[in-house]
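Batch manifest, entry 17 of 40.
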Amino acid sequence: MIHCSTVEERVSLVSQMLSKPTHGLISQWSRAHHVSRQTLYRWATKGRQALSAAFEAPQVPPKPKSPHVFLVLTLLLETHASYRGIQTCLREMHGLHLSLGTIAGIVKEAGSRAQNWLKQQQAPTARTLALDEQYSSQRGKAYLNVIDVHSGQVWATVPPVAVDGESWTLLLWYLSEQGIETKGTVSDGGRAIAEAVTQVYGSTHHQRDIWHLLHLASQVQARLDRAVSMEQERLPAIQRNAERASAGKAPKGRPSGVTLAQQQARIAQMQYVAQSVNYLCQHVRRMVEVVVVHQGRLLSSQERQGEIEAALDLLDELAPLATTVMQKQIQMLSKHLRLALPQTLLFARELDARNLHAVRCLGSEAVALLAWAWRRRTVLGPSSTHLLKAIPSAWRKEAAMLLKAWDQAVRASSVVENWHSIVRPHLAVHRTLSAGFLALLAVWHNHRIAPRGLHEDLSPLQRTGSASSDHTWLAALGYSALAA
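Output type: structure tokens
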């Protein structure tokens, strides 16, 4: 009896089986070696697999991705680092030696991915867009930015182009082709933006930023106050010379050219003009609030416009009483406010229908009380949702819609200024930003979770209601392994 008990004997037997044996040979070997046919077939299968594995190309496990891509992009965006700064940090803190070309390549690749991501952005509902330019070091050129007013999401950001209506029109057409529906726009009143918005959307839904107008009013007021202070500083010297003249002594210094009484009258008139301008500007500021309560009721947009026009008429009457230099300042302010008035009160006209419906349902006194509480919501709330809990149940349905309309009223383009503050440090480091870099910065910003404030623990994408809001910015760019 021959029994295959050693490895060499089994290898010899399996080799003969794999060399295409004739019919009946397996049964003959089974009887001769006292091994079942199933065992022989199992040995043959194992031998065939061993031979295949021996002659196949070796399976080399893929190398895990290096974390230096994650480190480069994080240092670039979170710390506003330059390429050389990134190179130094990686060498000193992680022992990684990357060339500037490698770092630039990583940023370029990420920027290309970011541009593709921006092209695929969608909005589930119509959005209100804030438009503004951020001027660059190139004369006559600026970065064009389009930001969502209510969420802060960056819809488009363009490297330096000519600031004209054509550039803005092309950008707004691009957003329309992308499928972003626009409910309204807001800007600081730039001519190029106004021209493009009128051509693409029409001027009926373009809101003028009120804070730029109020800032202009504060500048004129500061110049008036400074002029009054300068005249008051001259008064002691004039008074001393008047006392010397009454004592029969010669005056000291350069002659002032005015008497003490004339200087006092001049100062009194300038103070009157400055105080009057301040009062009128404060009145205009009050009329452009989201809600204005007067004598127990809300003022409509037409009533507000009448109040502002009356204030501007009084401002025109004050101009002749001011000095020659300040006359031009007051006239410039009045002209600026008159030209901007139709677009400045657009938000109020849009609220008229909702306010009127609430007055019919709840009464003017109840709506005025809600307006009083809403204006103090940071103390009583701190939000409209908290205010609703303290409102009688019979009011809540109508009050909820009214407070929501007030919350979403658009008067300013401040959100685009916030984006400028994010871009500005990178612009200071890199001097100029490419389209890829801007797109990369926009993707990072759109996914960034607010650590505090009104939108705490929410990203711009989450506030917009986007389907991609659950991803991190690295995962959105295809660096999921690194993001994990």
